[in-house]
């Protein structure tokens, strides 16, 4: 990964919690936060897994052109019968984050429909664990957009990224009707 493509992990301070990285863009962050809230409010599955306006579960930590990060503390609705993050939750995070990465690409108001999605499950996370989701655009063309999403377990002691929990790719049809 080239240096200009790296996303810095937010740093923590005792008084104010996570701080945005120096590479984060305020306009892009505001756009994806708003985009997320409109999608969450119109999607029962997103509201269930990511919280609602009164109880948001997702916390955005950085955003810039085509890349964003957010954190989510795992609650009972995120778990499978073995007490680990459910594969369907990881797949939903890949779907959600792929769309948000496209929205972060050029501040667009619509991110199209899914054409293909794939997820690899690499490790687990449990109740109370925090995960960091990174959505990244690989390419936005005239008809298709390609994204990569990774879900990391956050180290409770340091607040930094740990093991990759899931990695996915999401392709969307983005051509707008004329």
Descriptive report:
The chain has a 6-stranded antiparallel β-sheet with strand order 3-4-6-7-8-5. The N terminus is likely disordered. By secondary structure, the protein is an alpha+beta fold. It is globular. It contains 3 helices and 8 strands. Helix 1 crosses helix 2 and helix 1 packs across helix 3. A hairpin with a 6-residue loop joins strand 7 and strand 8.
How are the secondary structure elements laid out?
Blueprint: E1 11-13, E2 17-19, H1 26-42, H2 44-50, E3 58-64, E4 67-73, H3 87-106, E5 113-121, E6 130-140, E7 144-154, E8 161-173
Antiparallel strand pairs: 1-2, 3-4, 4-6, 5-8, 6-7, 7-8
Can you summarize this structure?
By secondary structure, this protein is of the alpha+beta class. 25% of the residues lie in helices and 36% in strands. The chain has a six-stranded antiparallel beta sheet. Strands 1-2 form a two-stranded antiparallel sheet.
Q: Structural class of the secondary elements?
A: alpha+beta
Rg measurement, Å:
15 Å
Total beta strands: 8
Instruction: Give the H and E element order.
Output: EEHHEEHEEEE
The global form is globular
Content of β-strand: 35-45%
- Secondary structure tally, helices: 3
Largest sheet: 6 strands, antiparallel
What are the segments in which pLDDT stays under 50 over at least 5 consecutive residues? 1-19
The main sheet orders its strands as 3-4-6-7-8-5
Helix content: 10-25%
Straight-line distance between termini: 37 Å
Mean pLDDT: 88
